Amino acid sequence: MIVLGIETSCDETSAAVIQDRRVLSNIISSQLVHEHYGGVVPALASRAHLRMVRPVIDEALNTAGMSKKDIDTIAVTHGPGLVGALLVGLTFAKGMALALDIPYFGVNHMEGHIYGNLLSREQPAFPILFLIVSGGHTMLVLMRDHLDYTLLGTTRDDAVGEAFDKTAKVLGLGYPGGPVIDKKARSGDPDFIRFPQAFLKDAHYDFSYSGLKTSVLTYTEKHTTEHLERHMNDICASFQKAAIDVLITKSLRAAKAHQVKAIAFAGGVAANSYLRTHLTEKGRQAGFDVYQPELAYCTDNAAMIAYAGWHHLQRGERSPQNLNAVPSLPLGATAP
Ligand SMILES: Nc1ncnc2c1ncn2[C@@H]1O[C@H](COP(=O)(O)OP(=O)(O)OP(=O)(O)O)[C@@H](O)[C@H]1O
Ligand SMILES: [Mg+2]
């Protein structure tokens, strides 16, 4: 089955062509316009998607060596995300499906992140404890089988990726904050400052990141510019350790409690080098398989959407032409 995937939920316009599990193309156009504002501006995102959606799809088809007629189905993100951004991809997908007389399926973006990880695995061993860490979400999900999700915990305020972005802004490091903090932290001392780790010892699986972000802000207010500049790498490393260690501790605890076979992680923050090294090492020490996502499938991309859609479409699931974009679509929800 050849699936065209389309992703426009936030600030990446992406299209991909997959043939079953094989990725034939995965084109991503990242919107640089938001850098100037230190965060995603919804109206600008929709406009950029409108401009880019057709050329990106054409490039995905060209790279795969295909024409529109070769496509069997379309998988498109319909939530969660920015409503105006989602509508661009969804409307385009519906129009294409209608014109080509082929089925399409509306995919949950977080399910897409999960399948971005599973793209590299022929036979995943269920149950899997999934840690999904991105710009808008921090979730622990128990996955007993394909497309079967139980939410164990989530953030009560900021997402972990959002904490990286906001902290980078406070430190004057630009947007997005994850990659730059990750890079600076590599040559910093993670034990230089002890930033707070919310809910670390609590039995539940929820997270909170607003306190950590505020704590970095308070630290910057209390120290001189010279001190901050001299210790920037140490501050980044200490922030990163506080943000990521709590994810690792809770993932291991949930994996043991639910006796899973594997721990997997996904989403933009899954590109973080500290998380990749330490969760993998500690998970394996505790006796679990650990599934790392390929870097190319961490931040938003349409290959992950196509592959999640492929699982639904294989089961004969189809979306109707009146499917709507749902900004806060929960994982595993049936489309309204
Ligand atoms: N190496 C890294 N370390 C930490 N965070 C990172 C790294 N690379 C990217 N990120 C973070 O990942 C986030 C982007 O991920 P992603 O594209 O999955 O988020 P999103 O699509 O905006 O949110 P969501 O998937 O929740 O809708 C940003 O917050 C960015 O700072
Ligand atoms: Mg995302």
Q: In words, what does this structure look like?
A:
By secondary structure, the protein is an alpha/beta fold. The chain folds into 2 domains: 2-114 and 297-314, Nucleotidyltransferase, domain 5 (2-Layer Sandwich); 126-292, ATPase, nucleotide binding domain (Nucleotidyltransferase, domain 5). The chain is 42% helix and 19% strand. It is built from 10 helices and 10 strands. The protein has helices at residues 42-64, 83-100, 109-118, 160-170, 177-185, 210-222, 225-230, 232-257, 273-285, 302-314; strands at residues 2-7, 12-19, 22-30, 73-79, 104-108, 128-133, 138-145, 148-154, 262-266, 289-291. A 5-stranded mixed β-sheet has the order 3-2-1-4-5, with helices on both faces. β4 (73-79), α2 and β5 form a beta-alpha-beta unit. α1 runs parallel beside α2. The model has no long low-confidence stretch (mean pLDDT 96). The structure holds adenosine-5'-triphosphate (ATP) and magnesium ion (MG).
